[in-house]
Design brief:
504 residues, alpha/beta, Rossmann fold, five-stranded parallel sheet, three-stranded antiparallel sheet, 40% helix
């Protein structure tokens, strides 16, 4: 069906003006009745954040999404546009997206009165009805609301109080749409004051001249709680005018976090196929969880989901690089790839004083080590748990005895899988215990990774020592107190955790 192109044709269809809030409410109710996914790609918010956002939209509320960085606040704001109609009619040639049957500016009203049913209209798609602005200290009222254009006034010989000399800002130009201000506390207080009329009276005033334009707009804000004390604040009158304050959060479950990382990361490169075993994939995701409880990091700043995304991509890149060097079309990611992906962690965390003393690199290695140990402890036996059958080292006695004889194994990040497997098979008992506890989905690819994971887990459990230098990793026996009491047949005790990352 041909869309109306004039005001007369639009009237003939029975079209009636509708506010943007009523439009959002109508379409959201339809989506609820049809049981559609409301915010595709948003994981872990189904029982917490999404119901609150739905309630706010149904109540015609302006809202603020309040949470730490990397909690999908901006993505949720942008997805609200999906609850707008596919297209709406607006007056052609006017900047404020004015409804042909309900114009708001004097120029548009005069044009409609003069042209009548012949008034030209155009159709505005929903994608053009959403705009956002990052709040920065240099944002001005003119940027957001508008200002007088003295050149236009001089050329047209008009008074500054005339609407025709106004250059409108981004908010009026989003009329009949959704406007988002990111990082609201960074907006200077004097600029926040300029938003008060828009929030309550729904109009704008420019330069104090008697020009008032009623705005039809839904405003969404995002903010980080840290900003309230570190960089700025939301003035009380503006906070009072924001109808709904919705707290976001990081995914509570590891599986939810992995879904987010998988959908956002670039892992299918089209060059070589990189296989990531489930235990290693879990360890990659666990780094962010370790970071969110680390005493070396500023927890008020948060740890973005982007840490896991970039870490996974870096691990895939490490495996891809190794495969290309060795002429392989398929490869498996290895624990050593995590150690060489620390650059994806160091730039994503904010250190406190204790962390700065250790250095970002050591803290990143510490977090990766803790994540590997967490998965190791869940899937493999405890190296320090004795049993009646073997009170010394339990299932790892053969492995530790191999290193206690002075043997060492050396691995590199560029070593091909078959060579890694050949080196690791020298360790007595390693393959047997690895096969007993870790899944081997692809024999030729997974076995070397699984055995290396077991060795690394023993190092993180303080059973084996490890030296790293220029891409080479050397595993050896743990000297000193780790072996005290071995002659008496007693299991060694793990060193007391001091909460400090160590570069061994």
């Amino acid at each position: 069906m041909k869309k109306p192109q004039t005001l007369g044709e639009l009237r003939a269809t029975g079209y009636k003006p509708e506010s943007v809030r009523a439009e959002l409410r109508r379409n959201l109710l339809t989506a609820l009745r049809e049981k559609r996914a409301l915010f595709p790609g948003i994981v872990g918010f189904d029982k917490t954040v999404i119901p609150q956002v739905v309630n706010a939209v149904l109540a015609h509320h302006d809202l603020i999404l309040l949470g730490l960085r990397g909690q999908a606040k901006t993505r949720m704001a942008r997805q609200l546009v999906e609850f707008l109609d596919p297209e709406i009619p607006i007056l052609a040639g006017f900047p404020l997206n004015e409804d042909p049957l309900a114009p708001i500016s004097s120029g548009a009203k005069a044009h409609v009165a003069a042209s009548g049913d012949r008034t030209e209209i155009r159709w505005l798609p929903r994608e053009e009805r959403y705009r956002e602005k990052l709040a920065t200290p240099d944002v001005t009222i003119a940027d957001l609301i508008g200002d007088i254009d003295p050149i236009k006034a001089a050329n047209k010989r008009l008074d500054y109080a005339s609407e025709e000399v106004i250059h409108y800002g981004i908010i009026p130009r989003t009329n009949r749409g959704i406007f988002c201000i990111n990082e609201l506390p960074d907006l200077p207080a004097r600029i926040q004051v300029g938003l008060l009329n828009i929030m309550q009276e729904r109009d704008i005033q420019i330069r104090g001249f008697p020009i008032r334009l009623p705005m039809d707009i839904l405003i969404v804000y995002t903010a980080n709680p840290e900003d309230y004390t570190n960089r700025g604040s939301i003035i009380t009158p503006l906070k009072d005018r924001i109808d709904s304050q919705i707290l976001t959060h990081y995914p509570a479950a590891l599986n939810d976090a992995m879904k987010i990382t998988d959908q956002e990361s670039w892992t299918e490169r089209g060059t070589v196929k990189v296989h990531i075993p489930p235990y290693l994939r879990e360890a990659i995701e666990a780094v962010a969880f370790q970071a969110r409880k680390s005493e070396f990091l500023d927890q008020s700043s948060g740890v973005s989901a982007r840490l896991s995304i970039t870490l996974l991509e870096s691990v895939v890149s490490g495996a891809e690089r190794r495969a290309v060097i060795n002429g392989e079309r398929e490869t498996c990611a290895r624990p050593i790839d995590l150690q060489f992906a620390v650059s994806a962690v160091t730039g994503k965390v904010e250190l406190v004083y204790e962390g700065e003393q250790q250095g970002a690199l050591n803290v990143a290695r510490h977090l990766i080590g803790r994540s590997i140990k967490g998965v190791f402890d869940r899937l493999l036996p405890d190296a320090y748990k004795s049993s009646k059958e073997d009170p010394s080292f339990g299932p790892y006695k053969t492995i530790i005895s191999y290193f206690a004889k002075g043997n060492k194994i050396e691995l590199t990040d560029e070593m091909p899988g078959p060579e890694v497997l050949k080196v690791l098979r020298q360790v007595d008992g390693l393959e047997a215990i690895t096969r007993s506890h870790l899944p081997i989905d692809k024999e030729n690819l997974d076995l070397a990774c699984a055995m290396e994971f077991t060795i690394e887990g023993l190092h993180q459990s303080r059973v084996l020592a490890k030296d790293e230098l220029d891409g080479h990793t050397l595993y050896r026996d743990m000297l000193g107190s780790m072996f005290e009491g071995m002659d008496e047949g007693k299991p060694p005790r793990p060193p007391k955790e001091r909460g400090r990352p160590r570069d061994e």
